[in-house]
User: Fold these one by one.
Assistant:
Number 1:
Amino acid sequence: MVVMNRKNLRSLAAGVALLMAVGALAGCGGEKKADDSKKMVTVGIAQLVEHGALDAANKGFVAGMASKGFKENENVKYDRQNAQADQSNLQNIAQRFVSNKVDLICAIATPTAQTMANATKDIPIVATAVTDYEVAKLAASN
């Protein structure tokens, strides 16, 4: 049995989120690097509530994007939203992202990922701080 401490778990979550985000931005044509295009990429980041672990996942995602060349206000714009633990706020945030046609959604926490997944089938979603994607009905299997 592998025991993960909080720091390792955060690093793992941020790494998984980064890999998924880069894959989503790259599409099918191979890994996209930030300097491949001058286009500004818009990423919606939705967080369920302010919490140390969730805040770390948010920062880790942005740092991971930066390590791949996606620099804020240069070639990526983040629309950061916090639902303040309110489901109706999550719905509004999801609709905002869909209406604004963001290029990618980063959903932080299970309820956030579920709400974003219910709102769109067209926008790629990276989810982090989700304990079990299968149980949450976000994936066919873990």
Number 2:
Amino acid sequence: MPEPELPGRRERRRVQTLDHVAATAMRLFEAQGYDATTMEQIAQQSDLAKGTLYNHFPTKDAILAHWVHLALAADTQRLHATIDWHAGFAAQLAHLLEASAEWTESHRSYLLDYFRFRFLNIESELRGGGDSDGETPRDLSGLFETLIAAAQQDGTLRTDVSAAHFASLLHHLYFGALMRWLTLPGLVLRDEFAVIADLFIAGARAGAGAKSPRKRQP
């Protein structure tokens, strides 16, 4: 009799299947377009039964989201290794935003479908907790937090707000710039990112607007 498959091995096989499906789907998206690609085609090209594919991914948007998350995780690791820790926060942030603009512009046609999926599944994502293992950040927000924490330690940024809170606020600014660019014709993404970088640095720099908590009126 064959030996039963261990839980860890099953999970690795499941992850490998998810990654294989996502890579296969992206090849189809690039070859024939996202809208023209069907779940049946993805199942066939992935060598999976259609029911098995739906057990892993309920929608085509879910497959796209998995691929985007894989790409972002890999790119985050690469960017983390390229950070110049002596350059100063403004230069470091500019470096991250430039790299993000380059990647985003090359994948623009997929992003509205990706963000639609993220919004529709925001509750389950929040229940899933954070996305960092405490070592190398695995997303752009994690990179923001790493840079902000270092800038707080060297006195560049104010410390009355935690690095995690600041990173969340910066990520909201980033997302707002990205959505403006995706939905309003004629905008230049690098210009949108430059605006939010200036706004964030002006408000977060040490000595800029830090106030003690307002006392409640009796």
Number 3:
Amino acid sequence: MNDGLEQFEFASLITAHDDGNYAEAVVPPIFQTSLFTFSNFDDMISAYRGEKVRPIYTRGLNPTVRAFEEMLAKLEGAEDALGFASGMAAISSAILSFVEPGDRIVAVKHVYPDAFRLFGTILKRMKVEVTYVDGRDEEAVAKALPGAKVFYMESPTSWVMEAHNVGSLAELARKHGVVSMIDNSWASPFFQRPITLGVDLVIHSASKYLGGHSDVVAGVVAGSKEMIARLKAEAYPYLGGKLSPFDAWLLIRGLRTLPIRMKAHEAAALTIARRLQELDVVGQVCHPGLANCLPVGLNGTSGLFSFIFREGVDIRAFTDHLKLFKLGVSWGGHESLIVPGEVVLQQKAQPNSAHAFGIHARSVRLHVGLEGTEALWSDLQEAIAVAS
């Protein structure tokens, strides 16, 4: 990593809460409780007046959840963070905290499909306009930003994996007084720390690499104390997308193995992407690591990428013959997954980002898991041979 956060420092941040406060337990406990009581009247009134920050009700504050939030904030280089019950709860709460009816959002193309649906349904009914731009075209971004309230990014973007110069885009947003947000789920804070690049708010679907075991659905937003306080004031308590103590505990467990998992995902996916690139039946491989160099601030690549088959390959036969790669959405866990572009093009949920952004019908999205590079490559080879 070339941004000063070496692996030893990363490990130190991950273990920051292992400080012996809980009977010398190696793992922080789960405070599985809905509420916290008070010793006396003065103690209670002090808490309600805000004179003393302490747990009252788990929807507002819980020690296990707070431990995860503080850990994630440190990993991202942020002042504070806020956990949510899902990635979409994190996205919607962040967006709704900074826009009002009549406002405009600028978003990069190829955003996460459900974020696209949020923009095209609820925000549309709120009379919030969304302008989509190519994040690689900084001139186009600069022209779109004046008058906008929020600039929403992903880098790399969903499905096509376009990597952007996040620092330059964040600087453009700041120049025009626009709040910048980025979904950093793909890279994780191990490979990309957008706060250090000037982004205001960083969002994660913590269900992905932060959790890493496909057993938790969660989200998190990191940023300055001021901006996180704005989320806490309205969207967080009133929309109710609260992260549970047990899920927070699972996320703490996941963060501890994040560096080693990300390196393993990166190595396996890069190897497979390069081999796919050499096959005659493959027309294009969309993986940021295949470029001559990564954008400034992106210090590695994860296990998620896509490729496009040429005509003549039976994609149904290809997917049905796979054994290690399973047909399934989401990603970030041990298991390797595949989603054909033809499937998302037929999805009934509207609006459909695959249609809006022109996802190729012969494309395939892979998540390369941790089963072993050669075993996964053999699985792909056999399925391609059958389908060709």
